[in-house]
Design brief:
With about 220 residues, the protein is α+β, with helices and mostly antiparallel strands. Strands 1, 2, 3, 4, 5 and 6 form a 6-stranded antiparallel sheet that branches. It folds into 2 domains: about 60 residues; about 120 residues, Chitinase A, domain 3 (Roll). Helix content is about 30%, strand content about 20%. The longest helix is centred in the N-terminal third of the chain and has 49 residues.
Length: about 220
């Protein structure tokens, strides 16, 4: 009899089994909580990776759009571009010309520096088209080359992108020199626009935009 009492007092009785069951339940609960924490952390990590992959994909898709024409007050007459010369494509498609257009419009023109001090907008017809005259408010499609008036260094060209640029004319979507110089030009024409800084991007280069007087040679391919 005394031996049984001693065994119970030593931790071998029914009370100790209950404590062991409780301890086992607590251990299982802690293990389950640890698993949930690990799963939660893993889910968050996977979510971060998914967001990073999505952002990377968007950036990759948009890489080629940096030079596309969108609005005025930038390095090219219709874009917020950086103003760096664009490389010639190795196999650019010939532009689609209006009916009876001069075949010379299929070839990028050579543009040289101007002479003397440029004080006002000058429009020089290099090739006169036979189409209707451009009207303010129309959407026109052009090929163009832009150079610095003083040294003839090219800073932008639609030929370098391999496709013409389309934009509204006479409505503030492009620099004032274009809005003023291209209205009235017949479709199918090639014109030279000599533009003083105040009708272009200003007289100082800011944010990569070309400053001072500029010269553009513009082919007007369509207007509607």
């Amino acid at each position: 009899m005394s031996e049984r009492v001693q065994n119970r007092s030593a931790g071998q009785g029914p009370g100790t089994k209950a404590e062991r069951r409780l301890a086992a339940q607590l251990a299982a609960k802690k293990a389950a909580e640890a698993r949930r924490r690990r799963q939660s952390m893993l889910g968050a990590f996977v979510g971060v990776l998914a967001v990073a992959a999505l952002i990377g994909g968007i950036v990759w898709l948009n890489k080629g759009d940096d030079k596309q024409p969108v609005t005025s007050s930038s390095a090219n007459p219709t874009a917020e571009a950086a103003g760096e010369p664009t490389a010639e494509p190795t196999a650019a498609a010939e532009p689609q010309l209006p009916a009876d257009a001069d075949p010379a419009l299929k070839t990028k023109p050579k543009v040289v520096a101007g002479k003397g001090e440029l004080k006002k907008l000058s429009v020089t017809t290099l090739i006169k088209g036979t189409g209707p005259a451009v009207k303010a408010g129309q959407q026109i499609t052009t090929n163009y080359v832009g150079v610095f008036y003083k040294d003839g260094k090219e800073f932008d060209s639609s030929w370098g992108r391999g496709e013409p640029a389309t934009f509204g004319i006479g409505v503030g979507q492009v620099i004032p020199g274009w809005d003023q110089g291209l209205v009235g030009v017949p479709v199918g024409s090639r014109v030279q626009l000599d533009i003083p800084g105040e009708l272009a991007y200003g007289n100082e280069s800011v944010g990569g935009r070309p400053g001072g007087p500029l010269r553009f040679v513009v082919d007007v391919l369509a207007a509607q």
